[in-house]
């Protein structure tokens, strides 16, 4: 966000309250949210991030994809085995999973990794809700504590010079008990607004079956919104260099 500027003072009354004068600094890292249907290439995108990569996984497909990246410098916390297939999530298990996630996630920010991935953040939102309430849904005014926890996880990015990528599933949008035909982000609804870059991934069902990544929002460069990356163009470095055009390829190794 910025560094304290020692050449200029701060009104003493404001200094007592904790205000500081800063000099804005552009960091060479980005926060990104990516969403899409199953098998649209989201996890592969995660594995193109600057190394070392710290990866918190809840997705069983990761082990099938990792062999495609034999030289990747990655440290993995695999939470997927904590979810018993076919068994409903209960509050005790949800609390154990979130506690383990929170400890691992905080540790990654203090470590030497350059990039942090949570695949999927949709799952962690479901876990956090169960950990808080013990049920899938409650009235909106009860969500304040869990919303604050989720914001806290995301806003860690502001304190460190590391890349962050949060992966979401999508769900069909329904209005008045009717499908709109649109697909929307499934998970903590404030995530896209808290991230610098938002993207949606798809794979064509017909023709060449191309993979695409479409930037749906970018707070770093509004002109990047709507940009489409296809097949081999889809990697974290390409998106990051478009979002921060003053950076060099070496900044994203």
CA-CA gap between termini? 22 Å
H/E series: EHEEHEHEHEHHEEHEEEH
What is the average per-residue confidence, as pLDDT, rounded to a whole number?
A: 91
Shape: globular
Main β sheet profile: 9 strands, mixed
How big is the Rg?
A: 20 Å
**Uncertain stretches:** none
Task: Tell me what the structure shows.
The protein has 253 residues and is an alpha/beta fold. The chain has two domains: 1-27, no CATH class; 31-195, Rossmann fold (3-Layer(aba) Sandwich). 28% of the residues lie in helices and 26% in strands. The chain is built from eight helices and eleven strands. The strands form two sheets. Strands 3, 4, 5, 6, 7, 8, 9, 10 and 11 form a nine-stranded mixed sheet that branches. Helix 4 (91-110) packs across helix 5 and helix 5 (121-133) packs antiparallel against helix 6 (144-155). It is globular. The two termini are 22 Å apart. The model has no long low-confidence stretch (mean pLDDT 91).
């Amino acid at each position: 966000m910025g560094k304290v500027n020692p050449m200029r003072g701060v009104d003493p009354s404001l200094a007592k309250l904790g205000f500081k004068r800063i000099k804005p600094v552009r960091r060479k890292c980005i926060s990104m949210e990516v969403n899409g249907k199953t098998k649209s290439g989201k996890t592969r995108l995660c594995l193109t991030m600057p190394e070392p990569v710290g990866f918190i996984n809840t997705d069983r497909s990761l082990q099938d994809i990792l062999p495609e990246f034999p030289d990747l410098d990655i440290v993995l916390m695999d939470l997927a085995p904590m979810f018993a297939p076919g068994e409903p999530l209960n509050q005790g298990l949800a609390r154990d999973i979130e506690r383990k996630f929170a400890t691992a996630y905080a540790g990654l920010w203090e470590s030497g990794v350059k990039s942090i991935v949570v695949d999927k953040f949709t799952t962690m939102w479901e876990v956090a809700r169960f950990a808080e309430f013990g049920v899938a849904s409650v009235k909106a005014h009860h969500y304040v504590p869990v919303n604050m926890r989720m914001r806290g996880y995301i806003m860690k990015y502001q304190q460190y010079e590391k890349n962050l990528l949060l992966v979401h599933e999508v769900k069909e949008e329904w209005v008045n008990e009717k499908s709109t035909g649109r697909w929307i982000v499934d998970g903590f609804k404030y995530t896209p607004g808290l991230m610098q870059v938002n993207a949606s991934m798809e794979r064509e069902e017909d023709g060449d079956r191309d993979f695409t990544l479409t930037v749906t929002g970018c707070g770093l460069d509004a002109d990047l919104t709507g940009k489409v990356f296809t097949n081999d163009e889809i990697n974290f470095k390409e998106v990051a260099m478009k979002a921060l055009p003053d950076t060099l390829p070496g900044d994203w190794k």
